[in-house]
Specification:
84% of the residues lie in helices and 2% in strands. It folds into two domains: 104 residues; 127 residues, no CATH class. The chain is globular and about 50 Å long. It is built from ten helices and two strands; from the N terminus they run ααααααββαααα. The chain starts with a helix and ends with a helix. The protein has 262 residues and is mainly α.
Length: 262
């Protein structure tokens, strides 16, 4: 009878705890998804800046429209629930960004609009994600991973046979790599030294692959190298298998290409 009673107590305890654990996991995933959209938006802002500096107003406009056309819809429900007025504010900002950074405005005025937009994005981060979570190293590492995963897809769309076929997608990929590296630079002092060194080498490889318009397979290997290393740094279980051997082979191949075209 005592054993039976104990089993009932354990079962009741599990029933009580499990839903709350699931709710917390879902809550964290929602925050991660929302923050991921913010990070991609910041990547697009960077791409706008780069194109304006290079005089590519047409491509800058494409990046200015991506956040409102591709990202805002996923953020709107949480924004509207938290603060309808702020939701309207961020929607208007994203809607107007193309006009405020277009070819008929000065570079200085365009930068002011971008800087204002960045400030609003940070307001959204604090409102929905919260300051404490936004500063958590593991949370930010997961944002890095999400950006890099998306960058792989964008690069694959943008580059074919060593040529850029879709410039906006290629730049999306590079913008998300850039943004992930910005986050890494801000959190690397909290990470193990060995993983930091590996990640820095992978970033060097990844940018080199971008510069050479390498096969998407090579880009994926280097991006996944960072994803795996950052996962290990925050205690995630990863499967290394033959990744490092494969990476070394890719590095050797890129060195050969560099020598041939030097």
């Amino acid at each position: 009878m005592k054993k039976y009673t104990t089993s009932i107590i354990v079962a009741i305890t599990l029933i009580t705890i499990l839903p709350s654990q699931l709710s917390f996991a879902e809550f964290e995933d929602e925050k991660l998804s929302f923050a991921g959209s913010l990070e991609e938006t910041l990547g697009h802002f960077w791409a706008i800046e780069q194109n304006l500096d290079d005089g590519n107003a047409e491509i800058a406009l494409v990046h200015a429209t991506h956040p409102i056309s591709e990202l805002y819809a996923s953020m709107k429900p949480e924004l509207k629930e938290a603060n309808p007025e702020f939701d309207a504010k961020i929607e208007k900002m994203l809607m107007d960004l193309g006009k405020k950074t277009g070819s008929d405005v000065t570079r200085q005025d365009a930068q002011m609009a971008i800087d204002d937009a960045k400030s609003i994005i940070e307001e959204a981060r604090i409102l929905i994600v919260g300051k404490e979570t936004s500063q958590d190293t593991a949370f930010r590492a997961k944002l890095m991973q999400g950006l890099l995963k998306t960058s792989i897809e964008e690069y694959e769309e943008g580059v074919q046979n060593g040529q850029i076929e879709m410039m906006a997608e290629f730049q999306d990929g590079s913008a998300f790599v850039w943004r992930s590296q910005q986050i890494f630079d801000e959190i690397k002092s909290d990470l193990p030294e060995h993983e930091v060194e590996e990640i820095e080498e992978f970033y060097s490889d990844l940018w080199d692959a971008y510069d050479k318009r390498s096969d998407s397979e090579h880009v994926e290997i280097f991006a996944n190298g960072i994803i795996n290393e950052i996962g290990e740094a925050i205690g995630e279980e990863t499967e290394k298998t033959d990744l490092m051997t494969y990476v070394e082979n890719i590095r050797d191949l890129l060195k050969q290409v560099k020598t041939e075209y030097a």
